[in-house]
Design brief:
The structure holds 3 protein chains of 3 kinds. Chain A has one domain. Chain A is built from 10 helices and no strands. In chain A, helix 3 runs parallel beside helix 7 and helix 7 packs across helix 8. Chain A is elongated and about 55 Å long. Chain A starts with a helix and ends with a helix. Chain B has a single domain, classed as P-loop containing nucleotide triphosphate hydrolases (Rossmann fold), CATH 3.40.50.300. Chain B is 25% helix and 25% strand. Classes of the chains: A mainly alpha, B alpha/beta, C mainly alpha. Chains in contact: A-B, A-C, B-C.
Amino acid sequence: MILIFCQYFLREFEISTSQVTDILSQLGFFMLIMMLFPLTLGPNPNKLSEYGIALVWIAAFVSVVPAYDRLFTDDYLHGFIEKAAHNDQPLGCYAAAKCLCFFLVTTIPLLIILPVICTMIGLNLSIFFELAISLVLGLFGMTLLGGIASGLVLGARRAAILAAVLVLPLSLPIIIFGCMAGIALIETTPIKPYISIMIAMDLSLIVLAIPIMQLSLKNAIENS
Amino acid sequence: MSSSELAHATLSFTNVTLFRANKLIFKNLNLNFSSGEICILNGPNGAGKTSLLRIIAGYIPISNGMMSLNGQMFEPLKSHLPIWYIGHPFGFHPNLSAAKNLSQIASMRRLSMFDEDRFNVIDFFQQPIRTLSTGQIQRLALSQLLLKSNRQKEALWLLDEPNSTLDSLHCLALETLIEEHIKTGGRVIVAAHQPLCEHLSPQIIQLEAKP
Amino acid sequence: MFNYLANPTRFRKIASFILPFLEVICLLSLGYGLYLALLVSPADYQQGDAVRIMYVHVPSAWLALSSYLLLGICSFFFLIWRHPLAEIAARSIAPIGTGFAALTLITGSLWGKPIWGVWWVWDGRLTSMLVLFFFFIGYISLSNAFDRSERGARPAAILALVGCINLPIVKFSVDWWHTLHQPASIMRSGGISIDTAMLWPLLTLFFSFQIFFIIIVLTRMLTLLNELKYFKQISRS
């Protein structure tokens, strides 16, 4: 099982490294959204740093959500998923590897430019580490939800916008607790409870999302 | 079922009916596919050739009836019988090279690379799939059947229009490959418009188009 | 019992038999409930007559929530036993649930204007209802997003189940968020400390809304069944 998982993961990794422009454009999108906030809220540094955490969260979410419909669509259209159904391991293994790779590929570049973004909107860099942890936990859960949505919309019309419509209401708990962790950071109250809740949500999402993705992928094959 | 039993098992359809999107594709189909036999599905477009292959591959559930292997219920995706469905879309990623795609499939299904390059895929092995022609992709897809393992002998091959885009040289290679496979007890089911392997006196199944 | 009712022909027979009775019950209880709510029940000493919006608002909210639950149950039956009637039920419930959720939001906003002075307040209950509304919207758009209509049934059913699991978590997190940002400054509508003079019309109206809901769902189900039968006949001839 672990061997096959690694195989799938390597395959995904090779595919995403062959499409570096996708990663870069998503990163550019993130920075552009961040640039919009000072232009709309005004350049007042106090105001910006007050809202900073929420802005980072919104920009991170908005920049990854449009990518979710791509998660399984390519492999579905190329027929890879139905071929993978004949491998010894269940499709859930494939889905998990795909989500993990997608998560790493979207999150790591974001974390790399996060310090720059933080300085630009006047967030204190001392909270950077905790902010990064909460963002990583949030985006991990988001990726699993995105995987569910992406599996469900396979073969649908206008799948991209539909996936976004499905993901955002489902992801409210994540964004709420993520932002609360951020607020607690600024107010220097303990953020541990929020982080624990987010870890709990992520873990239960792993258990929940993998069988659901497997079910929806199987269903998509039956109807292709 | 042990693998020696699997090797000689007969795959049979009893009263298989398939509806897709409230449309009847075929009704009460009774078929037998024994090992060491090639079976050719014939019929006009829309008669259900691809659907039949996809049923056997386990992609489409049947609406009614039963699919069995030696009298036991046959669930293709859970069975130990190795199944190769070679049909469009082939499952290759357009950005990766032919070699990469093939070696990924080999490692995922725990097979080793072939020794004999019968479909001459070496010529374009390092090129990404998106630069290949339809015939070349077809040859690469058929090369999957050459991948080796000790269980490949009994494998069930489901080939959807394998020879429609091949040149005569590679058609011949395909025929030889099929002949060798059924001589060692394999099963081959082909949906084809062009004649294939006529010297092996294949079982021909004529599917009819529904109005 | 379930299997007995799950036969479409039998279902159609029973449903068309009980529908007229339900309609009579609904009309009577609605009339009585409205009489109680609008004329008999006292006006609130703080809110005045505006409190009467509650008699529409609260039953709609209960119904919106319970119809999502029912949607989840039907989807579960459809996923496990692949029963077509469960799918038809789910498809019939979804737009009605959306309607009740929208009604809750609208009446909540109308009620909010005289009480809070603004049309919309990010109150915990209203916010969760808004999320519920989006869950319904997601369900409906997913089930209609495919070229072949029956193709959307299973993805939508899976989504409804995920939503059912997610809904309590959303409720919990929204409550948490709400207490953090606005510590108990807003009056709680329809709490336990409600006077019997108000409780009685509320329950009567809730009952009549419930019957109304059943009537519409049954009618929609019958229509969808007839439509299915009609298309089958067309494709055969």
